[in-house]
């Protein structure tokens, strides 16, 4: 164990380390380089791994050991680089994975519906029965604005206004859905809060507008996008509740291990909900305010509702053998 | 080596890199290679966040300015299109900024890159799109109730400084190992200490009895001392010197000289 050994070791092995360092220059993924380079890096990596252990035995000084460490760690990352999720799977995701994940989470989807629609029904009925009730839930200005907006039949927006509103709906609604999901990490409590809160607000606004005489207008307006939008918010809530449940019902795993085990299905629901909200924003921005006759709008609304139910309920079902 | 009396702690090799600090994360791969990552603490991550915050603000600020300057003149018949795009950009920057950059440059947003930080998976591999998506969606929970209070509290309670998003996605933020070059002195016999040895040789045995661990420590010190200032080298040597002075009966020996002479004897023997 003399130092001369360490020096001889470094002198002899240094070219190998430098060769590996040379191959790792640049950010180009190893997977995209010629096969010969990949196997060369793999061979060099194995050699440097051995050197790393020998270096520690021989008592290499810390700064040099650090160099070898960093080299090994970079090579390891390059060789075991995680594959990016292939985008070609999107089709399969939409028609199979997303509806399957949601159906598997059916019970919590039901609870999420309950948490959203019961407060919705309560504030709706309250504001319908008692004209003063809405003012206790929302600021007067907001209510007046809403009542004003739905006081006339939609006369159609220009394309530009539609784009503005579509952009706003993406920003606002997808944001709400993501927050509703993410706060499920607090054992589902955050999700429950956001579901109840959004249900109550939506109910109060709808009730107030109907109360002030814009009933037909607002219902015709939301007929197109509501099936997509409200369902998607509830789905993101169901995903958030599933996250909370995974933390509570662990089936013998650690809490985080249990959550990790279910992450795929949970993520599928969130991403699916986000896609639905993007579609809803387009409908809400361009179609809902259009001057199309109410009958057509109701028809489209019922059609979309049927599609959503059929898709989420039946897409991606497997044959029972 | 067989002549040496067994050291008190047996023949365990001296681990030169024992994680002395609990901010060092040690990972072992199937190749029996252990990696040591320095974990990034809340301070560093806050600084990186500030940089990212500024960049995001800049992107949005420039976009708002452009829309304001255009003022509908470009799309006279399509007024509002640019506003829609602006709102879409707000959404993308709020929710997609980290996701995009962590996917693009292997786990480092521009702010993290500026502070030499990187997100990796707990097993040491680079983050995948799914990992990044999960950890960044949960940002919405971490920033509750305001200013990332939940995230910072979680980080401080966790031994690996993980916020909620990291805990769920099984990711950690580490300091990027510096791709330092090998110093020129490595691979050559260090000469620095020899010059510091006293002219009068110390009365030490020709073949000092030292355990294997002691010899390893001596060798390590010998290699490392030239990289340190003399004062620091002496400070380190003084930790061990009293024991050695007593053992070899040289009560007045200078600590550095004592270690250096012992080292020479070991090499020669």
Short structural summary:
The complex is a heterodimer of chains A (321) and B (269). By secondary structure, chain A is mainly α. Chain A has 13 helices and no strands.
Rg of chain A, please? 29 Å
The description of the largest β-sheet of chain B is:
4 strands, antiparallel
Q: Give the count of structural domains of chain B.
A: 2
Low-confidence stretches of chain B: 1-19
Write down the secondary-structure element order of chain A: HHHHHHHHHHHHH
Shape of chain B: elongated
Number of strands of chain A: 0
The Cα radius of gyration of chain B reads 28 Å
Helix content of chain A: over 70%
Structure in words:
The complex is a heterodimer of chains A (321) and B (269). With 321 residues, chain A is an all-alpha fold. Chain A folds into 2 domains: 3-79; 89-314, no CATH class. Helix content of chain A is 79%, strand content 0%. Chain A is built from 13 helices and no strands. In chain A, helix 1 packs antiparallel against helix 2 (35-58), helix 5 packs across helix 9 and helix 8 runs antiparallel to helix 12 (263-287). Chain A is elongated, with a radius of gyration of 29 Å. Chain B has 269 residues and is an alpha+beta fold. Chain B folds into 2 domains: 37-175, no CATH class; 194-268, no CATH class. Chain B has helices at 42-70, 81-104, 110-114, 129-137, 139-142, 149-157, 164-169, 212-224, 230-248, 255-268, and strands spanning 24-28, 34-39, 117-121, 171-175. A 4-stranded antiparallel sheet of chain B has the order 1-2-4-3. In chain B, helix 2 packs across helix 4 (129-137) and helix 9 packs across helix 10. Chains A and B meet through helix 1, helix 2, helix 3, helix 8 and helix 11 of A and strand 2, helix 2, helix 4, helix 5 and helix 7 of B.
